[in-house]
Design a protein that fits this description.
seven-stranded mixed beta sheet, alpha+beta, about 200 residues, Aminopeptidase
Length: about 200
């Protein structure tokens, strides 16, 4: 997975991701809405607010998008939104994209705190962020009814020090003696392949 700038040809794919997400009633991040608002010159955007495409390394396919929001260099805090197309979920792209973005913002840009807001019903995102080292700091009761119930907004955060401790391979202090295999590396045959077959 790699992060790159959004191109004009990506817009139709991002719109398709949003339509599929609405149809399947999952997530709350809207790729196209975020990118269209930023392209229109939203006055609330900060200097470090950027949008990136998430692209698969093999084949160069657009699988999602991630954007930096509310980046305030003076306070050292930022937030982000990430969305993966329905067909590409559960492949590790979101985790890799978030970890790459956090490493960049903490190491290269000098930020030291990241907050995210996640709907309480989005179990996949809550699990992902917990595994990345985020900690829940608050639950804000939302007045919006979701499928007959009231949802909460879960606020999670991570500091640069917590991220470096949880992900030493992504911090600037880790220098492996040999290249590590990628997160999605798999042996040539699946785990269910009989051991005796050659």
């Amino acid at each position: 997975m790699r992060l790159r700038e959004i191109r004009s040809v990506d817009r139709s794919t991002l719109v398709g991701f949003d339509r599929a997400a609405v149809r399947d009633r999952v997530g709350g991040y809207r790729h196209w809405a975020v990118h269209r608002a930023s392209a229109a010159g939203d006055e609330n955007l900060q200097d470090d607010d950027h949008q990136f495409a998430i692209e698969a390394l093999h084949g160069g396919m657009l699988v999602g998008s991630i954007c930096i929001l509310h980046a305030v260099p003076a306070s050292g805090r930022f937030s982000y939104g990430v969305g993966i197309g329905v067909r590409h979920r559960r492949c590790g792209y979101a985790g890799d994209a978030v970890a790459t973005l956090l490493a960049f913002m903490f190491e290269q840009r000098g930020y030291h705190w990241c907050d995210v807001g996640i709907r309480s019903g989005n179990i996949a995102s809550l699990t992902l962020h917990s595994r990345l080292g985020f900690q829940e700091i608050d639950r804000v009761r939302d007045t919006e009814l979701v499928h007959g119930g009231v949802a909460s907004l879960v606020i999670m955060s991570i500091t640069a020090a917590q991220f470096a401790e949880a992900h030493p391979a992504r911090s600037g202090t880790h220098h492996p003696s040999r290249p590590e295999r990628g997160r999605h590396w798999r042996p040539g045959r699946g785990r269910h392949w009989p051991a005796g077959r050659g």
